[in-house]
Amino acid sequence: MSDRQKKTFVITRFDPDKDEVPKTQTYEIPVRPDWKVLDALNFIKDEVDGTLSHRWSCRMAVCGSCGMMVNGEPKLTCKTALSDYGDTVEVGPLSNFPVIRDLVVELEGFMEKFKAVKPWILRAKEKAPEEGVYRQSPAELEAFKQFSMCINCMLCYAACPVVGNEPDYLGPAAIALGHRYNLDSRDEGDAERNQVFREEGGVYSCSYANECSEVCPKNVDPAAAINQAKFLAVVDWAKSFVSPRSRKK
Amino acid sequence: MARLADPRAMSPSRPGRTRTAPPVMPPLFPARGRYRSYMLFGACCVFFLLSSLLFLRVVDALAAGPEAWDDLLRQFRHPLYLAYNVAALAGFVFTARRFFFQLFAKSQPPRIGPLPRPPLAVLPPLLGAAWVAATALIFCILWGAFP
Q1: Do residues B35 and A160 lie in contact, with contact meaning Cβ atoms separated by under 8 Å?
Q2: Beta bridge partners of A68
């Protein structure tokens, strides 16, 4: 314990059975220099206050479960070193999301937005298995690979100023994923997705704050995806007048 | 405590079984951190609006004849107009820097029709060169270099 310094954690608490609104609770705990924020939360949960609720799983920035607001910024707590902060660290649930309990947010709305962009390969006609696999060149893969690295951590939603003001907005991760499939050479569903993108709450709700890309822990750059999607959605709309049945080849 | 977001933000279409606390806006929004530059970028649109109106006034004076034109030039020497021009120039440079040199390049799709996008590292210098060339051309025109 000798190598441990003390830090104060101001954590947002909310019990739906008791509290009208979230409140904060302060914990002073000994921390090790190599700890991440998640280690401190787990210490509090295990050693100090078992009632604290938070989500986590892989502890290596892959599962996207442990996204929270740390000193006002959306962060993956398993990737955020405590040494980057001073003696007091504020931890809260992700902004722009309804809070179920303490640091746990409601995910269902996020999942609905995901489904809306049809994030799977759409084809006019599926190949029979005996016809072989859909082949793709390294260059074709490179066109969308960056946008396929999303781990659905929702930090981009917590940072976006539009998400909190426009409930219908699809949001950064969902649009980036839809755009990823639009760029996929095996996919033929871009007209369908562009229709969704052009609707109210689609890509044109984005005002290019670029915050989603600033906070993305995987460098997916959702802002780039959204603004590329804006351009391609217009091209698709214009093409529909020239050739109503046009589809990506 | 940050200000409340729209209560329907990120809510499911059908309410869940548990009562939830309403969503709040990001705590640093709108005045702190990187949001400041985003808000300033949005606020600069007022310069585009006012300068467009001024441009219409210039065109109107040009069409109205030499007397109206001289009168307009006299008005433009007023310190308030000069101060506005300085502020507008700062706003335009800030907007151009943020949009063209930070945001524009990555918003170009990998292919634009049959043409591949130029490498992202090349686009900002190309834009910079185009900007310098256009500025030089406008400067020459205003200077009277072309008869």
Answers
A1: no
A2: A75
For A146, the token pair is: 């960056």
Question: What is the predicted pLDDT for the residue at B30?
Answer: 87
Question: Nearest CA to CA, how far is A22 from chain B (Å)?
Answer: 7
Q: Do B23 and A98 touch (CB under 8 A)?
A: yes
B34 and chain A in contact, CB less than 8 A: yes
| Confidence band for B15, pLDDT divided at 50, 70 and 90 | confident
Q: What is the pTM of this model?
A: 0.90
Q: Using the predicted structure, report yes or no on whether residue A30 has a pLDDT greater than 80.
A: yes
Last residue of a domain, one of A61, A89, A105: A105
How far is B89 from B96, CA to CA, in rounded Å?
10
Q: The domain containing residue B110 runs over which residues?
A: 36-143
Q: Could you give the 3-state DSSP secondary structure of residue A192? A: helix
| pLDDT tens digits along A58-84 | 999 999 999 999 999 999 999 999 999
Check which CATH number belongs to the domain holding A202 and give it.
1.10.1060.10
Q: Please answer yes or no on whether B9 and A228 come within 8 Å at the CB atom.
A: no
Please state, in angstroms and as integers, the Cα–Cα distance from residue B141 to each residue in B55, B57, B116, B132, following that order. Answer: 16, 20, 35, 14
Nearest to B12 among A95, A109, A231 (CB): A109
Query: Which one of B1, B8, B17, B24 makes the best mutation probe of the A interface by having the most chain A beta carbons within 10 Å?
Result: B24
Question: Cα dihedral angle (B73, B74, B77, B82), rounded to 10 degrees?
Answer: -50
User: Domain containing A156: what range?
Assistant: 108-239
Beta carbons of B68 and B76 less than 8 angstroms apart: no
Q: Which of B1, B10, B97, B123 to mutate to test the interface with A (most CBs of A within 10 A)?
A: B10
Same domain, A217 and A127: yes
The ipTM assigned to this model is 0.88
Q: Tell whether B108 is within 8 A of chain A (Cβ).
A: yes
B109:A231 CB<8 A: yes
